[in-house]
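pasting for the record
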Amino acid sequence: MAIEVRVPTILRTYTGGQKAVQGSGQNLSELFTDLEAQHPGIQERLVEDGELRRFVNVYLNDEDVRFLDGISTELSDGDNVTILPAVAGGMR
């Protein structure tokens, strides 16, 4: 099962600069474990205590996984996963 994962600039140091990588898994948790095997260090930037980190947004085919099943969201062959760091800040 091939899943395309779009990687934000801040995490591309783990993927050798690649904007997108391929992974596999039945759900997001398995996908992140597979990505960790290919790109060591990336999983700890995405997951903490078995859940998505607070300031990481993950989209499955343009749907926020927090409104699906979170890290347990099921995946299908050909899905697209986009990882986006949350953006905060600005002027008062």
